[in-house]
Specification:
Elements (H helix, E strand, L loop, with lengths): L2 E6 L17 E2 L2 E2 H10 L5 E6 L4 H7 L6 E4 L4 H12 L6 E6 L7 H10 L5 E7 L4 E4 L4 E5 L5 E3 L3 E4 H9 L8 H7 L4 E5 L12 H14 L3 E14 L3 E4 L2 E4 L3 E2 L7 H13 L5 H4 L13 H13 L3 E10 L6 H15 L6 E6 L5 H4 L3 E12 L1
Helix pairs in contact: 3-5, 5-6, 8-10
The structure holds cytidine-5'-triphosphate (CTP) and magnesium ion.
Family: In the N-terminal section; belongs to the IspD/TarI cytidylyltransferase family. IspD subfamily.
Organism: Tritonibacter scottomollicae (Epibacterium scottomollicae)
Cofactor: a divalent metal cation
Length: 382
């Protein structure tokens, strides 16, 4: 699954003035384009492509230090720049593409996550802000009418698409289009609206530089929203010849009893994630009274908790799980468990810990009546 972002930066920035096109100009200690690229370097994006005018020396200078990005050639208008970028990305096995204006350097991390998440259930998605001001029609000097705003949204980027669908839509485009949502809709794709952000401004006029600088500086000063959650679970031993722990089948002279596959470690981690979001526990989302969850693979529960966190704009910073039992011995399997858990949660392995302890033969775990698991999870929203 490859996700790319196409950052369109081939405009001349005429309305912003200032001689040098706005995307190459300084902003809060870097350049506009540096902020925009950095927002996607921190997101779950595999490829970054910048569409720029290859003959513009300001572009060459500003992009020289970015060794890990791909480049494409801009066109006469925004749609042509996007189309050139999409064609350059073709054959790179891209599944999902975000299309973003270089002139929106303040794009918040949660907005990128949310629009990408919406692509799991829609062919296209884009952030929109419901219009709150009253709207008039008018001449330059006089109000001529009032416009109903109840169905109106201000369009933002990044706009997200399944790659093949938006490439075909652009290749079939006849005439101008305001943005890629219009291109997609002309090709018959339905576009989901995700929540836009008032800080995701597009630098357009000279005064927008000061606004963008304020937004970036205040986000640098602000403390990220960090949530901790804990989870605890116990399953009783019963007849069987293996146990499933953190997604790995471990041979044992007993099995674990439970409604699902009784993966006590995965349940504790799942509950830690729900806990961090104050979203109850597994039982609330997958009631044991519902027969469809009998014998279910626990990764269904874990994936649900992970998707819920992403849809709320959180990144999972780390999880730590401790299994408590005398037998089976966990040590020989712990690394495999970490890898499996990291794979399910789509996290780096070094952010996932699985470890074990005995309880010195004390209590129910010590007597070998069952296995207990404790977990902690940290969620971060920038
Ligand atoms: N863009 C582009 N290729 C074009 C025109 C625009 O890649 N031929 C990009 C711009 O660089 C910008 C984004 O599309 O990041 C949004 O366009 P806009 O804000 O209109 O930027 P400009 O066209 O550069 O500005 P202006 O219209 O004021 O000249
Ligand atoms: Mg323009």
């Amino acid at each position: 699954m490859t996700t790319a972002v196409l950052i369109v930066a081939a405009g001349t920035g005429t309305r912003a003035g200032g001689g040098v096109a706005k995307q190459w100009r300084p902003l809060a200690g870097k350049r506009v384009i540096d902020w925009t690229i950095a927002a996607f370097q921190e997101a779950s994006v595999d490829l970054i492509m910048v569409v720029r005018d290859p003959d513009n020396p300001d572009a060459a200078q500003a992009l020289a230090k970015h060794k890990d990005i791909l480049l494409a050639k801009g066109g006469v208008d925004r749609s042509t720049s996007v189309r050139n970028g999409l064609i350059a990305l073709d054959k790179m096995n891209v599944d999902k593409v975000l299309i973003h204006d270089a002139a929106r350097p303040c794009v918040p991390a949660h907005l990128i996550t949310e629009v990408l998440c919406a692509l799991d259930t829609a062919p296209a998605a884009a952030p929109g802000l419901a219009v709150t001001d009253a709207l008039w029609t008018g001449t330059a000097h006089e109000v001529t009418g009032t416009q109903d705003r109840s169905n109106l949204y201000a369009a933002q980027t990044p706009q997200a698409f399944h790659f093949d669908a938006i490439l075909s839509a652009h290749l079939a485009l006849d005439g101008p289009a305001a943005d890629d949502v219009e291109v997609a809709r002309k090709a018959g794709l339905s576009v989901r609206i995700t929540q836009g952000d008032i800080n995701n401004i597009k630098i357009t006029r000279p005064e927008d530089f000061a606004r963008a600088e304020n937004i970036l500086r205040s986000s640098m000063d602000s403390i990220p929203d960090i949530r901790l959650g804990n989870g605890y679970d116990v399953h009783r031993f019963g007849p069987g010849d293996q146990v499933t722990l953190c997604g790995i089948e471990v041979p044992h002279d007993r099995g674990l009893q439970g409604h699902s596959d009784a993966d006590v470690g995965m349940h504790a981690v799942t509950d830690a994630l729900y806990g961090a979001m104050a979203e109850g526990d597994i039982g609330r989302h997958f009631p044991p009274s519902d027969p469809q969850w009998k014998g279910a693979a626990s990764e269904i529960f874990l994936r649900h908790a992970v998707d819920l966190a992403l849809s709320k704009g959180f990144r999972i910073s780390n999880v730590d799980c401790t299994l408590v039992c005398e037998f089976p011995k966990i040590g020989p399997h712990a690394e495999e468990m970490r890898s499996r858990m990291a794979e399910i949660m789509n996290m780096d392995r070094d952010r996932v810990s699985v470890k074990a302890t005995t309880s010195e033969r004390l209590g129910f775990t010590g007597r070998g009546e069952g296995i207990a698991a404790l977990a902690t999870a940290t969620l971060v929203r920038a």
